[in-house]
Amino acid sequence: MSNVEDLLQQAIEHHQVGHFDAADSLYRRILEADPNHARTLHLMGVLASQQGNFQDSVRMIEQAIRLAPNEVAFHSNLGLILTEHNLLDQAVASLLRAIAIHPGFADAHNNLGNVRQKQGQFEAAIACYRKAISINPDFAIAHFNLGVVLGSQGLYVAAIESYQTSLAVSPDAVEVYNNLGVALMECRRYGEAILAFQSALRLSPNYADAFKNLGNTLTEVFEWEKAIEAYRQANRLRPGIAESLQVYLQQHICDWNGLEALTHQLIAMVDDARYAESGMTISPFSFLCLPIATTAQQQIQCSRAWSKAKYGSIHKWRKLPACDREDASGKLTPRAKVNTERSSGSGKKIRVGYLSADFYDHPTAYLSVELFEAHDRERFEVIGYSIGPSEPDPMRERLTRAFDKFYDLQSHSFDDAASKIAADRIDILVDMKGYTRYSRPEILAYRPATIQVSYLGYPGTMGADFIDYAIVDEIVVPRHQQSCFSEQLVYLPGCYQVNSRLTTEKLPIPSRADCNLPETGFVFCSFNNSYKITPKIFDVWMRLLQKTPESCLWLLEANRFAAVHLGREAEERGVSASRIVFAPKLDHLGHLARHRVADLFLDCYPVNAHTSGSDALRMGLPLLTLQGDTFVSRVASSLLTALELPELIATTLETYEAIALQLAQDRDKLRELQMRLSKNIEATSLFDGRVFARTIEVAYQTMWEVFEKA
Fold first, then answer.
1. Peptide bond into 35 cis (omega under 30)
2. pLDDT in tens, 238-280
3. First CA to last CA across the chain, in angstroms?
4. H-helix segments, 548-666
5. Contact assessment for residue 175 and residue 197, using Cβ atoms and an 8 Å cutoff
């Protein structure tokens, strides 16, 4: 028997260093001598799993368990293997047997935590990891796993502590440094995050994820050229991992070098029939903003893959108890067409929750604050849920007063935030972020509200099973595009975009000198964000400057890199960089006032002006747009249609250029447009949040009726 033990020790040594063939040969020699050697059967099962032979691994470990039913490691490893193959209920049973045999076996508690995490039972997973750590405080992997699940729930401060403890035990753990960096970045501790990613890269110079995350962090501290280089390194190591991020950042700084080829690669990825299962997801918002127009079908393919990869496990495993649902399934059925032209006679006061990260001095807040104030309190109770910055400012104070109740959920886990919303028994939860910055779709994936709606913040489909409706209008989303939205489309009469009233008549108008503009000449203006400026649109703008003597182009000063690159691009097109004037950032009213100095707002394509478009029109500045085929390229058209100015909607680049040139050369026609715009602002209700409140309330009421009748 001592010979068997010697052979087993040799086999284990080979096994541990990855000499699998040698280990397998020795294990087989042992079993020839003793076919019922339980430890060897167990280890052969582990080896079979490592070599991808799942059936053999389970068969051998189960045979070992029959021979030695009280060996805790056998049950624990079987549970681990079953977990890897998503046989989660069987895995739980094996791990619970292991714990019953030996409650102090830390590995089993850790492995059970992994299963609970896969099942979406995050609180249970946290408890398992903490139990493992209480048994073995130096269990580095358990500390790491605890950090992972805490981070997945948005509890980044606690996750940081777990990762740091793990590193104290195992200081060369590359993945822990990477995850620590992500958690630090989420807490906006950017300097520390950069150091964490750099530590990961020192240990593993070819770690693509660390390069990608380093790029994300450098972006936050405006080291954008360094961030682009980090993305390039990530893409070199693993093509596709950060190409959309690289493109989006290059757009922000107007660095168009190689942009077209990268954009075509991203579109080709989404067009590939294998994309949904490839795991190479692209941020839906980045995809919407590509400098080459994408189709509505491509956009839903991108969003569906993202939603499935990021939130599918939450939606599959974790649904909160449905509020006010009468059906046993807890599902909203059927999603019938909503008619927003009629109201309901139902006597129930509907509880509407608005979820946003923009409840402070933010463009979205300026658009929507009057809606919250104007809701009919006889029929609606209105609750605000903030998941973004909470610094006090006048807009934050006004918003807090606008809601019947207002809660700051920024520091809550996704689970806790969703539980709070569910406890408030929200009938209709309106998500105002979609896939934009600081959004938290994870909260909606828990299904905390009876009806869940996407509105205003994201101009496209979320591709998610947990969003029931998207609020649009006939212009931004033509009815034939319903198949390109996972949500049921709710059509508002007029423009879908809410706009609050604002007194602007008494705003002091700056002089041209105040704005660093030339005293004479036509002022073309585009106060869109820099990422919306594309080479083709810029080509048109430069031709307009060439054909309009003494004119200038007035742009927002988005960042120092964009100004340099756009100046260079202008010179390459034969236009002096001095003819581009950059407007510095101002407070909201100061920014609005300076619109009156410009002559014509030139929209971008394929991403139109949204809030920036309504700002210009509100101030009486004519806006010329180029309409595309998707939501993101039709918002300005919706605003202009509501103001009865269809002649400012171009459908081709050539028409766009021709209209702009005509208005620059025909001052009388431009003045006539300005007069009509001013008149139509008064005659229409586009800039009246009170009127809009009545319109969207009809939609909410009808959604609720559809649910009640299901």
1. no
2. 998 999 999 999 999 999 999 999 999 999 999 998 888 877 7
3. 72
4. 560-572, 588-594, 611-618, 635-642, 653-665
5. no
Residue with tokens 């009280």: 70
Tell me the two tokens of residue 447: 């299904």
> In this structure, what are the phi and psi dihedrals at residue 467, rounded to the nearest 5 degrees?
-110, 125
Closest residue by Cα to residue 390 from 438, 453, 428, 433: 438
Per the structure block, which two tokens stand in for 190?
């950017």
Structure tokens at 691: 């009127």
How many residues in total does the chain contain?
710
Asked if residue 239 has a cis previous peptide bond (ω within 30° of 0), the answer is no
**CA distance readout (Å), 599 to 268, 591, 663, 670, 673:** 40, 15, 9, 8, 11
Range(s) of the domain holding residue 246: 181-294
Q: Are 176 and 183 in contact (CB under 8 A)?
A: no
Whether 405 and 534 map to the same domain: the answer is: no
Q: How far apart are CA 609 and CA 526, in angstroms?
A: 9
159 φ/ψ angles, rounded to the nearest 5 degrees: -60, -40
CB 460 within 8 A of CB 384: no
**Residues 667 and 696 placed together within one structural domain of the fold:** no
| Number of C-beta neighbours around residue 230 at 10 A | 26
- Compute the distance between CA of residue 317 and CA of residue 264 in angstroms, rounded to an integer: 36
Global confidence as pTM: 0.90
Characterize 145-183 residue by residue with b for buried, 16 or more Cβ atoms within 10 angstroms of its Cβ, and e for exposed: bbbbbbbbbbbbebbbbbbebbbebeeebbbbbbbbbbb
Task: Give 292-312 pLDDT, tens digit per residue.
Answer: 999 999 999 999 999 999 998
CB 141, CB 163: distance < 8 Å: no
Q: Are residues 494 and 618 in the same domain?
A: no
Q: Coil, strand or helix: which one is 559?
A: coil
Instruction: Kindly state whether residues 390 and 482 are assigned to the same domain.
Output: yes
Q: Taking Cα atoms as reference points, which of 427, 463, 490, 402 lies closest to residue 689? A: 402
Q: Are 284 and 312 in contact (CB under 8 A)?
A: no
Identify whether the C-beta of residue 73 lies closer than 8 Å to the C-beta of residue 97. Answer: no
**Mean pLDDT on 161-190:** 97
Q: What is the CATH number of the domain that holds 202?
A: 1.25.40.10
* DSSP summary character for residue 632: G
